[in-house]
Amino acid sequence: MGLVEMSKDMVEMSVDINNTDRIMLIGPPKAGKTVAAATYSAQCPDVLPAKELTNLEDTLIWQFDEEGSKSLTYLNLNAPVIDFTKCKTFQDLQKKLKEAMKYTAEAVASGKVNVVIIDTLTSYDHALVGHYGGVYPEKKDSMALYNNVKLKHQVLQKFMRSLDCSYILIAHTKTVHAAVESTEAATRAKAQNLATGGDIVAAITGGGATLWKAAVSYIWPVLAKKVKGQQLMEHYVLPRGGQGFEGGGRFPFLADKEPAHLGLLFKKINSYGETK
Q1: pLDDT digits over 205-227, tens only?
Q2: 5 to each of 2, 25, 87, 100, how far by Cα in Å?
Q3: Residue 196 maps to which CATH number?
Q4: Domain count of the chain?
């Protein structure tokens, strides 16, 4: 993976929310979330593995998870990466974030980058909780701990929303007790094809999770299962949530389960829109 060299100066960003795609992919480790996100690239082949090494030059991955972008190599794909995994201290991480924001804003403004992938929000969240857990170790200070974590998420979320490009947020999942939902609300959500609740949710600290969910149009679980009689794994998304996962979107014409290739999925979405 290509590691991007960046300037150390920081520039101010203006918020310019646009109509580009904002997606959250959730799922367990090794489900294929990073590859699914990379397939959003206009340069990604429809059929994988690619016949030859394919550089996804319109894509930029912010890598917080050590294993993240390694999976692309197995499919003959390569994408530019800003690697946060080598940051040894919280101060190193904050410095790297400032550099990454400057570089990313410039790359998007120049038209070089059309999609930014954060891989994963869960790993970034763990770094925040780990740091502020040391600053506020007492249980009585838990509110201060989580307020600071939420604030850091808010800063990053505001930056991502300022970008004039698509972004894809990747998160691992955790299981929680489902909230009790009224029959009327559940029926209305189903009728409108809205995202509905489930026990399996994005593994991001409470306040941060709420912020990020408000910054995306789709929350799609990504899963994998072994193909019977073969060594291959089938990777797929659940465009309407389900199987215990939170998530969903506004596309009733999509199947309950779709191949985990976002490029093909959005071609299907756009094609449907053009015929209506």
Answers
A1: 988 999 999 999 899 999 998 87
A2: 9, 27, 15, 9
A3: 3.40.50.300
A4: 1
